[in-house]
Amino acid sequence: MIEKIVEIWDQGTYAGQLEDGFTPKIETYILKGEQKRGAVLICPGGGYGFTSEREAEPIALEFNAAGFHAFVLYYSVAPRKHPQPLLDVSKAIRILRENAEEWNILTDKIAVCGFSAGGHLAASLGVHWDNPLLQDEQDQGADIYRPNALILSYPVISGGEHAHRGSFDNLLGEDPEEALLTEMSLEEQVSEKTPPAFIWHTFEDTAVPVENSLLFAQAMRRHGIPFELHIYPEGPHGLSLATKLTATDEGQIDPHVATWMDLCIQWLSRLFL
User: Fold this and answer.
1) Residue 228 three-state SS
2) pTM score, two decimals?
């Protein structure tokens, strides 16, 4: 049995309070019972312009079926700019850890899963979790914001040659300072403190080039961070589960690409043993 709750927090309780009335929310998909479990926090894609329903509840239910609690974050998007989405996801993982006893979450087994621009957000937390920007006077230390694993599905990563310009324009504005662009070009920010990652992409992706995943994986390799990387030869951007459940047309159904979820669950289960 799954208990679905919508958790809305008071923006005034942490840095980066919004002035336009928008409040992020978390939809929780909690498996009932007393057993403590790992959890997955899901960041849908949408180019930092919206959050895609195709990469929200269907993903949560797949992780539920595998025995994980799941949470969907509806984070700030344009016209709201950086650092607000990063503040949202850091606040979300903090909420999970602060409610771990009530929700039966294993606090050292929390993954952040993102799709496309949501992948950029997930990876941003993976590389910037100890940034003082995320902390406030109530914090007990930066570790409360650190994900234990990253799941990156056709992620936006780089602001360079292979950037998805729409995502970066929405996040940083059309003419960001070079230092800010480098800060949010995540292949430049990987360090020994970055958590392990499961990454998948398609070679044919013309919206977010496969180089984004390759650059992030190469950076992880340089820093000795374990990862699992799958590059499928065919398939467009935005496949979600690549099944009929999440498809809007037949081109988004691909049984071969759909293996990513089973592979991801195997990887996550081994990591969280």
Assistant:
1) strand
2) 0.94
DSSP states of 121-152:
HHHHHHHHTT-GGG--TT-S-GGGG--SEEEE
Inter-residue contact 71 to 40 (CB < 8 Å): yes
| Bridge partners, 229 (sequence order) | 199
What pLDDT does 153 receive?
98
Structure token pair of residue 217: 């994986």
Contact 37, 65 (CB under 8 A): no
Cis peptide before 83 (omega within 30 of 0): yes
Q: Which two tokens stand for residue 40?
A: 């997955």
**Strands 149-153 vs 105-115: parallel, antiparallel or unpaired:** parallel
The DSSP result for 52-121, as a single string, is: -GGGSHHHHHHHHHTT-EEEEEE---TTS-TTHHHHHHHHHHHHHHHTHHHHTEEEEEEEEEEETHHHHH
Residues 6+ apart with CB under 8 A from 246: 54, 55, 58, 239, 240, 252
Name the β-bridge partners of 119.
none
| pLDDT at residue number 201 | 98
Q: Contact, 213 vs 155, CB < 8 A?
A: yes
Cα angle: 91, vertex 153, 46; to 5 degrees: 65
Helix (H, G, I), strand (E, B) or coil at 30: strand
Phi/psi at 17 (5° precision): -55, 135
Instruction: Write out pLDDT tens, residues 231-249.
Output: 999 999 999 999 999 999 9
DSSP structure class, residue 239 = -
